[in-house]
Every structure is written in C-alpha cells, then in structure tokens.
Amino acid sequence: MDPKMLFCLPEGDALFNPLNTMFIQMACILVFSQFFYLFLKPCGQAGPVAQILAGIVLSLLTIIQKVHDFFLQKDSASYYIFFSFLLRTCFMFLIGLELDLDFMKRNLRNSIVITLGSLVSCAIIWIPFLWFLVRFLHIKGDLITLYVAFLVTLSNTASPVVIRSIIDWKLHTSEIGRLAISCGLFIEITNIFIYTMVISYISGKMIGDIFAYTFATVVIIFINRFLASWLPKRNPKEKYLSKAETLAFFILILIIALTIESSNINSTGFVFFIGLMFPREGKTYRTLINRLSYPIHEFVLPVYFGYIGFRFSVHSLTARHYLALGMTVALSMVAKLLGVLCACLFLNIPKKYWLFLSAILSVKGHIGLVLLDSNLTYKKWFTPIIQDTFIATLVITTLLSGVISSLLLRTQEKGFSHQKTSLEFHDTKEELRVLTCVYGVRQARGMISLVSALNGVSSSPFTPYLMHLIPLSKKRKTELLYHELDEGGDDEFGTNEGLEINDSIDSFTRDRKVMIRQVKLVALMENMPEEICNGSEDLRVSIVFLPFHKHQRIDGKTTDDGEAFRDMNRKVLKQAQCSIGIFVDRNITGFHQLHGFESVQHVAALFFGGPDDREALSLCQWLIDNAQIHLTIIQFVADGSDTDNLVRDAVTKENNDVLMEIVGNDQTNDETDRTFLEEYYNRYVTTGQVGFIEKRVSNGEQTLTILREIGEMYSLFVVGKNRGNCLMTSGMSDWEECPELGTVGDFLASSNMDVNASVLVVQRHRHSFDIFVDE
Asked: What sections of the protein cross the membrane (predicted)?
C-alpha cells in the first residue's frame, strides 16, 4: 500500500477517510463482542464465538446504504488487508513465544499423527467432492490451484481461535488443552508449507526467495538471542527492559515480515518460528510477555476474530450456492472428525477426548483469510461468489465447532476437570506441576531450593510455578495504577523484591535448565487465600507450597512475619482443592539451595501413618534421584501394639522379586499404610536408593525424645500434618503453638526446641471419600 494513501487526510468535505473508519470499526467490534460475551459466557461459549458474531452483526448492518458507504469506502480493502497483516504478525509472534516447548517435545509423536490423520482424511474426501463441486457450480480455470486452495482452507485449523478458546475454557494447563494447541499449530504450519511450496512450484519464481527468507529468519533468530542476553546487562537494576528496547525486537520482526509479504509469500510461519526460538528465560522474555500478552489477548485477537465475521456475506449466493455451502461445511467437519478419531484410536487417547479434539480442531478462519488476501484473487475461477462461499464456509464451520466444543465440555465437565490433586497415586513418570507461593525474596530463595530438590527425576516432566504474593493495602498513597507503579520502580507493591526474585530464578534456570514460570498475585489480604486456591485450580497443580509465617534470623532465632500470613495459610489449608505443603525455611542452619553447590544434604521423611504421611512420603519420590539428596525414611511404630514389624523378612526368590511379610489386622487405614510402605520399601529401600530406620515408641514423650536426638542429623524433615488419634503423638498437642503444622510439625518448627533443620509439613487433598480425624 502506498504510504501516502495509508495516512491520507480526508479529501474535500469528507469527514472520515478509510483509516478513520477502520478504527471506528475496531471499536464497534470490541463493544459488540463484549455485549455478546456477557450473554454467551454463562453458556460456556469462548470469546472467539462472541467476537465473530460481533463481526457478522457489523457486516449485516452494511445492508444499510449509509453504513455500507461509511465502512466500505474506496481503497478500504487495502487498509483492512494491511492492518490484518499487522495484527497477524503480533499474535503469531506471541503464540510462538508462549508455546509450551517441553510439552510439545514430549507429545511430538501424538501431534504429528493427529496432523497426518486430519490432512489425509480431508484430502481423500475432497477428491470426489471437488469433482462434483466443479460441475455443480460450473467452475472453470486452474483446477490444481483450486484443489490446493480448498484442501488447505477446509482441512486447516485456525490456531489463534483454538488457543483463545482453550484459554477461555481454562484448559491451557491441561493435557488435552495443550495437545489441542500443539495439533492446531502443526496442522496450520503444515498447510502453510504445502500451499507455499505448491504455488512456488507452479509459478517457478518463489523457491529461491523462500530459501533466502529462511536464511534471513535464522539470522533474525540469532540476533534476537544476542540482544536477549545483552540488553539486560545495560540496566541490571531495572526489572524490565525499556519500551524503546522492546520496540527494537518488534521492528526487526516487522521488517522481515514486510519483506517476505512483498514477495507474495506468507510470513506467518516465519514470524511464528522467530517467537518459538526466542530464549525462554531472563529479563527480556519476561518483558515481552508482560508487554504483549494483555494487549494482544484483549484487543488484537478480538479485533482479528471480529474481522473474520465482518467479511461474512451471503447476499450474492443463489440456492445452488447455498446447497454447496451446506455440503462443504458438513464434509469439512466430517472429514476432520474421521481423521482425528482414527488418530486418537491409534494413539490410545482416552475416548472422552475424541469428540472434543475433533470439534475444536475444526475451527477455521486464519489461513483461509490469508489465502483470500493473496495472489489467489488473480485466478479466473476465484469469482466474488466463490469468495463469499469460501468465507461463509469458514465462519459457519468455526461457529458450529466452537458451540459443539463448549457443549461437550459442559456435558463432560467432570471428565475435563483436574484429576491429579494429590501425589499418592501420581506416577513419577507423569508431569509434576507444583505452585510455590512467596511474598518476598527471603521466601523465594527457600522455595527455589525446594524446587531444585524436587527436580531430581530427570526422566519426569516437571513444571514449577512461583506465585509472588503482593498484598494490596486498602488505603493507597497514590492514584497511579498498579502497572504504572511497577514500571516506575515504586516499591509499594514489591517491585524491588520482584527484581531480586527474578535474579534468583534466573540463576536457578541457568544452572538447572528448568524454567520456573512466574505468576504475580496482587490482592487484598483477606482475598488472598481464595485467589491462591483459584490460581492452583487454573494451573492444575498437584501441590501448593506455602511459606511459614515465621523466618529465621542471622542469629538463628525466628521472627514472626505477621498474623495475617498465618491466617492466610490456615484458610488455604481448608479451601485448597489440592495437596498443601507448609515450608518452614531455616536456610541458615537447615536446608539450603542445591544448585551451584555439590554438597549432599540429608533429608528425613517421618512416617507415623495416615493419608498425610503417605502424601509426604509420595512427595519424597521426586527427591530420590537427586544426587545431592540422601533420603532416609524413619518409621515410628507403636510399642506394645498388636502390629508387629512392618517388614519381618525379605525373601529373595529366583526371579529376584522381593516379598515382604505383612503382619497385622485387616483395619482399613492400617492396611493401606502397610501396603503403601511395603511397595515403597520394595521399590526404593531394597535397591539401596533410600535408607530405612524403625523407631518403636509408646507415647508422645518418647517420640519427642527421638526427634530431639535426630534433630541435628538432617537438614530437612518431611512429615504429614494429621494422623488422627495416634498413640505415638499423644500428649504432644498440649503445648503446640501452630496447629496448622500438626503436632510433629509444630514441634520441629518451634524455636524453643533444639532442631535446626528446615521442615516441610504436607497435607493431602481432602477428597470427599477420605475418612480422617484431625488431631
């Protein structure tokens, strides 16, 4: 587009030029979409459905001649195409930036199989239907280009629509949600590649350009990597990069995208890979995510989806075209359904996800619009009626797919809910998702040490989150908004603390190559427990670690951080929908960070019995393979009880299986403890990975004596919170200070006892079927 025309002033007496009316159109789409979303959200519909409907309504208003003349002025199509390109460039870079690479690597095979199944089934079904469609609609011209255009458009999945919908449904942290996003991206990038290569082969002019732009994209990726590491060093005391430095990255991306588009080659894939290969750690990454996420998700994507609906028009279609439109929509969804179902069956994906996955992968709109705005318009068969049929197919299919997907979610809500809310039955080969909460750098260092220890199973996927809790005071000293204070370096909301937390996380990431995802929670103190619980559900974590409300001073004594934080811990323990761990950090005399050091730390897991102790021992499975951790299980057994030693003899048979003789009653809870500990013993103790000690006691006083004796031997104690009416802890609650830690945890955390180790107290998620008695 001519720059002079792009920024022209109104001609003559005209009040508006196409540029002004385009911005008014964007504002109308945002207003209409919010209106529709207010009514559709309670029904479970995602944002893109409301935004596309807003565009359709705006398109229908153009039936009025004055509205038509206002929005569709001379050269307005060029403005829409150019700004559509700008919007597309922004969100494709952000999609690459936010993509979960670890999950995509683990599920690469699944994504490829589903992509191939989808494309092959669509290609097979479209061969006979295209033959019928050409004769039914009397299409003439280049049939090869026609077939490629139809195949790419109607077999494609609009990844921006999938991502935005998955986020609205809060499935972006679930396995099926992330799989849908990965498959959508694979299908879209594959279709872009197929179309680009076919058109290049037909024209014979683009192949050299494609290789040149691929090389230029690689150069941009290396430049970004250099800038991402160099720019933070210029201002190490600043929390984020400056706005000018942020703009430099976007200018580089915009230059390469404009250059590619000038050669009639789609730049979507190139921009996506630039975002995908951007470094995932450090100040630069945090700055880009912070600056781009909100405006793109709240303004850019809604306007882009609204633009899809705005291009919907069926005024020129005849009855013959309506029939072709209906068949095209139906076959498009059926072809996707068959391909995805066959792939899911081959991959043994649970049946409850089959229909949802095929429905959400049927959404269209992104690449279809790109094709319509390309040099495809110069083909003889690409008449205005065919164009309207194309767009109507994309819009109707997307709306139907979105509605069907939301209905499937509502009818199978339990099947899509978070299931891994405790660790006892959590396989160490499955992904472990944990949330650590901190309200200062002091707690952050201790929590990062804990995360470092849990990252011991190298073959186990591990996703840690760190939530910075920032209490919001009721009386504000300034009228500035929070983000303005944060940018300016005001410490009212923990900005300086945040800088030190970022430095600690960056140090850990460089050493352990594990990314800690950061979340910031700014809320009133009384609302903090509810927000933490909501955040844990949205992030689908199995356990939340909270800091104890006291911290250790340099002289070894403890200082109270405030009763408000203690109340927060108590409320989270009651309300959380997952397991909870309270970490008493004694980083001076007890457990300290592992990364950057080679010293071995001794950890003791105390087992008295009950769901919480089993949960604590289950958590320790992720500590075992850490070379810097030596774990010892200390089992306390009631002296004089009917239950003899848990393990009497270990008999090794010819097949090297170890059998443990279990002696005791058939009481449900005791039997569960014995079975659990037996399996644990067979798996870890007999192989020499874990130490095992048995202590026989008759009352709480003897238990206290033993705890004092071993208090200096370990740097970290892991213990469950509650264990019911336990003889071995009887009388210990008479002098407890902090009931939220349980009797044993309270004793170990007390500053009056000679215990210098850190303590982790674990409470298992209370399922409705759990039967327990709190102490």
From this structure: 20-40, 47-65, 77-99, 111-134, 146-167, 179-204, 210-228, 240-258, 264-280, 292-310, 322-346, 353-371, 391-409
